Amino acid sequence: MLSSWSSEKKIVSGFGVALIVVALALFSPYLVHPGAREIKQWVEQRQKVFDNLQSVLTDFREAQLYHRDFVLSGDARHADDFNEAVARVNERLFSLRTLDDDTKTAEQFRRLENELESSITSLRTAMNSRKEKSITPKRVMEMSDNALVQSNAAAASVERLENDQIKLLEERISQYSSLPNYQVLVGFLLITFLGLLGLGTFLMSKNWQNSVESLKERNQLLEDQLSSAQAHLDKLANKDLLTEVLNVRGLEQSLIAEQNRAGRAGAQLVGMLLNIDNFRRVNEGLGHAVGDVILKELSRRIGNTLRPSDHIGRIGRDEFLVLLPDTQLAYAMKVAERIRLSVSDSPLRNASDLIHLTVSAGVATLPQKVSSLEEVLTLTRSALKRSKLSGKNKVSVARDGASEDESPVARDIVDVLCDSSAFRTVFQPIIDLSTEQVSGYEILSRGPDGAFESPADFFRVCVENNILTTVDLSCVKLCINATNGVKQNMRFHLNIFPSTLLDTPIEQLLSLFPTQQDGRVFCVEISEQQFVGDPAYMRDHVNALKQAGILVAIDDVGFGRSSLESLILLEPDLVKVDRKYVTGVSVEPSKARLMKRLANVAKSLGAEIVAEGIENSDDIPVLKEIGVHYGQGWLFGELLEVLPGAPAGRRAGDQVGDTV
Known about the structure:
56% of the residues lie in helices and 12% in strands. It is α/β, with parallel strands linked by helices. It has an eight-stranded mixed barrel with strand order 8-9-10-11-12-13-14-15, surrounded by four helices. Strands 2-3-1-6-7 form a five-stranded mixed sheet, sandwiched between helices. The protein has a two-stranded antiparallel sheet with strand order 4-5. Helix 15 packs antiparallel against helix 16 (468-481). The longest helix is centred in the first third of the chain and has 41 residues, at 137-177. It starts with 6 loop residues before the first helix and ends in a 29-residue tail after the last strand.
């Protein structure tokens, strides 16, 4: 057949074949992607990093618990457990140093290791003080509280490093996901050459068809690998590696999803906290390996009792949290009872004996708006505590509140502080020094009448009972609700702990503020006095607040050891100077010089200055000359119980409900 072709046809056909070969050579880098093996090796390495980071976090949390147990009881066994947990943390940190040769990641691991070592040293110092007879128990508890606050920041650093690793994996996967569309590319080449060369491309069509099929197979293989890597990544990020149920991150995501669904459908969400009774004895008597087996078996039994729509997660050594969407409280109590019986009625068998286990449970109906997982744990933990105190192996339901004739002394401290109806707000005017007129108010929380009325007292107790985030968010809601109905344009300042800002998902925090502000401007004050570790950790949260139209102020500036660093990193809208640097500025030149330096820094950042603690009218001209914009203090009057401009007949502490 080819022998009958003319010379011109053969030349054209040969020329077409040559063009096709040249085109294939040019486009060959797109047709065979070299990264499949690379991404597989890289994901395997990331998996090891994730395993070690999760182990570091788990062991470090256990060290915190053992620390608190020792400080409260003085039992030397708790100190031994603490040392074992610290040893496991150090072992995992050493593994992390050997896993990653990337300079940036290695530097992150080094900083994490330094921060953990510093926190462990603080915890150990507090424990050693427990043994010293010359140190009072109150001082020991203060040292322990400070060490725990520092160690919580270190634990948060571990979680943030996990999130950074997740972002790295997602970026790497996205690079390999954006491959060229091979079929379109090859089809375009075929159509072009058919139009130009006719018979020449016809001769090669069979070979092109085979190439297309091969490319389809390779493309499908790579897509399968990417899907598998993404699924594995999700599992690492949201699942507990031991029990394969949700971890804290996975529970937080499930809580947000169920809260949104419940809000749309008007359904009820119930939380259930489960704890294995006397689990410490099992670990001590049979070893941690047996304890791990028990945890796996317990998670399996709980899962078999639940519906497919329910969520179960492990939040601690032997604690599990269950979320039951669209569930009535009576049904939730039946589910809890079935779980209790499934554990107590079926003991586990080891080589020589039966292991009898029981669980205690606390059940609570969750409110319509839950801002964080900490709130869920606070609501369910009080019920779990009653199950433990009443003999264990029981199910208790959270109380809606104490009876009217029940005195605060008889109520549980946690229940008192979690009851936001007992809180009230007061208001301190913020004065524009240029006009000496009120420009806004700082809204301050006051606790229940009696022992916990002072913020310093009730927030200290909140830290001791691990409910600071829950109570702090309740105070934020109360302060925002107190501004409802104010007719005049005004700026309102409210305070929030840095730990609350870091623990609460930013979307949930922003949902507390009204979408229709009606002339109100909100400013969130973050006390530098409460900063722990690097203030850069809060930069993303601060930027999110600013983008939502909420002002940010750094409070108590001048108190901490790194004020300048905090201001530069966070770039606040307002700088509030601590009263110790303001009071008497007209008669103390050293304070005036310090104020001038702070004013220059604030001006360079575009921030306004608020001077706290103004008690003498002679200080005002000096502050105005320095460049201070606003002032607060007893000179301008005492705290107000009623917000000026609020609807008539409504006091500052009245509950408005979830209207924001």
